[in-house]
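Quick one:
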Amino acid sequence: MSRPRSKIANAILVLLHAMPLTTSEISTSLDIKVDLARRYLNYLKKKGLVDKQDFLWSLTGQGEEVVKQILEMRNNKRLQEHIAIAKEIMAGKDSVRIENLDSDEKEILLFLLNKYKQWGSTYVYLDQMQEELGADFNWLLRVLRNLQTKRVVYLYHDPKLGFRIGFTQEAKRSLL
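Output:
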């Protein structure tokens, strides 16, 4: 069973899955011109995916099957995660995604964001962070290294002042 590859065609099919609609209702819902909606609907009719009765377009049995495939793909969490990574690769950058952080990493991130709000500075020193959080050094260093791997923070060893922790450029663009 072939399925349409166009975003507009897929969107029309998903809309019609909810209920039969007129060409005008479809074009308004998708914010496209009526003529464009009409061309896609005629294409989908030739493919046997939609049918028109009076002024209402609806899905055929074959159209229902295609929509099920579309929805399964959209709801496939693993696929969606891989699509997001592929898009980041295509964009040439890794953006900071808070949902990819565990609770310890989020705690450190919130600490750094609060310091930024308080001081306007995008970095703090490790000993200062450890003292203010009352955190175990090894735990703190492990979490910071995880954040460094995820390109959220950088660690810099200043020979005079110790380790400095700051937001990476990607994090600054995403978070600040």
